[in-house]
Design a protein that fits this description.
The chain has 147 residues and is of the alpha+beta class. It has six helices and four strands.
Amino acid sequence: MSPQKNSEITKNDSKITRMIILGPSANISQTELVRKLHMMELPLTIKSTCYGAAISGEEEVVKKAIISIRELDPCNIFTKDRGFPPGDPRRCRAKRGGAREGFHQLEKEFELLDYVSKALENPQKVQLKKPKKISIKEFKEIVENCQ
């Protein structure tokens, strides 16, 4: 491998991609989110998505952008790692066809975000009680009733 290719690998290793997901009750739209990301004038690759945006760049720059964006609506803007940069042919829907791998997982997670947002807005102290063990006799009865 040539030295140039080694340096390219090292350079790409320091880059990360994060998804910015807007919760159902977010006070900002996808369009506004992407516009605000562009207005930061950071060296990022920004891609508008159906759930918000995907951003890719040097780890420190991506983290700076996320901190700044989350200040807009801290209880309704979420982030998640994405293993591939925007437009990567291994995952790009335009090149592969159909839903991107992981999209259905993201869809299910999105359904829970409103609950998470409400919990973040109204934190409550919670105490968990350890469940008591049941007797072997009671367990056997449960099994027999199920058969």
